[in-house]
Prior knowledge:
Blueprint: E1 5-8, H1 18-33, E2 37-40, H2 54-65, E3 71-72, H3 88-100, E4 104-107, H4 111-124, H5 147-156, E5 161-164, E6 171-176, E7 180-185, E8 193-195, H6 203-213, E9 218-222, H7 229-239, E10 247-251, E11 254-255, H8 265-271, H9 292-295, H10 299-307, H11 322-328, E12 339-340, H12 343-356, H13 359-366, H14 372-375, H15 379-389, H16 397-407, H17 415-421, H18 426-438, H19 445-459, H20 463-475, H21 483-490, H22 492-512
Parallel strand pairs: 1-2, 2-3, 9-10, 11-12
Antiparallel strand pairs: 4-5, 5-8, 6-7
Helix pairs in contact: 1-11, 10-12, 13-15, 15-21, 18-19, 18-22, 19-21, 20-22
The chain binds one RNA strand through helix 4, strand 7, helix 6, strand 12 and helix 12.
Amino acid sequence: MKDFRVRFAPSPTGALHIGGVRTALYNYLLAKKMNGTFVLRIEDTDQKRYVKGAEDYIIQALEWCGIMPSEGQGLGGDYGPYRQSERRELYQQSIQQLIDNGNAYYAFDTPEELDAMRKRLEEAGGSVRNYCIFTRMDMKNSLTLPADEVAKKLASGEPYTIRLKVPADQTVVVNDVIRGEVKFETNTLDDKVMMKGDGLPTYHLANIVDDHAMKISHVIRGEEWLPSTAHHVLLYRAFGWEDEMPQFAHLPLILKPNGKGKLSKRDGQKLGIPVFPLSWDSDKPEDAFTGFKEFGFEPKAVINFLAFLGWNPGTEQEIFSLDELAEAFSLEKVGVSGARFDFDKAKWYNQEYIKAMDNTALAEKVKPWLSEEALQKGDDYLAAVCGLLKERVEVLPDFKEQSSYFFGPVQAYDDKNVKKRWKPENLARFEELKNMLAELSTFDAATAEAEVARFMAKHELGNGQVFPVLRLALAGTMKGPGVFEVMEVMGKEKVIMHFEAAFDYFEKLTKVS
RNA sequence: GCUCCUGUCGUCUAAUGGUUUAGGACACCUGACUUUCUAUCAGGAAAUGCGAGUUCGAUUCUCGUCGGGAGUGCCA
């Protein structure tokens, strides 16, 4: 039995998209379940698109998500180096092998000539529009040019690419774990470039060579790779590695929240939702993105959410830890059609994780969003506030918005409701209540409530005449936790201070208008 | 254009050739609880794209059709 080895092979061309994170997650889960190895390989063969910092970002993102590979770039292992830019020799040898056994050929066509060819074919209106079995003999390559001219061109340093010579009249059958048999006719396949003019391999070549060299047993990747998998099978054959070919599994795409097409980074900006795990900074504002982390998401919630985008355990359980996911996960249960990104569901997951969190731990998580003033109130106080608010919070920054009155004066009062609730006779009465509360020796929710009840009985007041006023005075808003719970957490002194400021304001507001 | 993938509530999905009034979750609506907002609980509305065929019976299998997606680069 072959060792179970999977890999995540991103390109360092920018921030790691949430779709990539899900691919990594599924690989991680399977490796864990199968007691296998999860490898990280950096596919940096496109020097034009290389972005500095992207590799670090990828590693940080995987780390934040808690789905780090155990072998690969930055992690060590027996199959390195794990950056493709450092494996050029291997690719050179491999491509030479293909040239030697007649499965690849040199092509000297310039980009302009290729454009012209495509344009010509398109105008001709036929179904063939690329460099392939039907057109290769019309082009400038080692199949059409005399051997001595080819040798001369190579010797002269004229730029060239090396293309795969796709065989004619064959049917390639890809056995996809998720989709079953997928068939391709080689006559419809193009002669893909394997080696670029700059001497670096394309994805196709490097990927196959590396997966083979790194003894990858299962290739789990996005559906966008399915159409080129025929070429990959052809490559395994050309190398004589077909017996060791990994199993393929193509994951459904993640689609836009609404509208057409797959999720893109632009959707994040347009809709104000995160589509990256971590923020990505850029000088250009259009290239800077806010991540799930900075949006106030818990990594566990993001993972839970992502796992369910295209996969389902078949039970009614919705909340899964990483270990539970690894236990329950299987490729057979991965869906086949695209999954729409649903931000509401992501927020729901986050709320579930926040609610389940211990108050002290939650307070730690919330700290980055709080003011210096709030932090100075101490961890216990913070934890108590978190405990009161956590049921009405979806993402961490919600705490900041909803908790300010616990840490300082009320920022803004709900004037509309103040006018509705504050009557001319209120001042005297509530001053009296304030004084009653001020004299309490123990100040907790129960005693405060009892005292307020005494006050209401004395003046024959109903809940509706008292509670909204208290809430307004304490929080400035009609929303929030129970007033007595708020009082207990705030403590007597702060409650009195809030009352004084509020009654003053209420008077002024109702007098002038 | 060509190639490949795909089509169950608005969304993510479950299920099975008949045991299904097609199940769950998010979102939505109603009610209960509560001083409010949440949370919670109880309800509600909501789907097998369409057309043939196979079959005693199809949402499930086949074909067609229409729709959605991806690929079609000296990007990955």
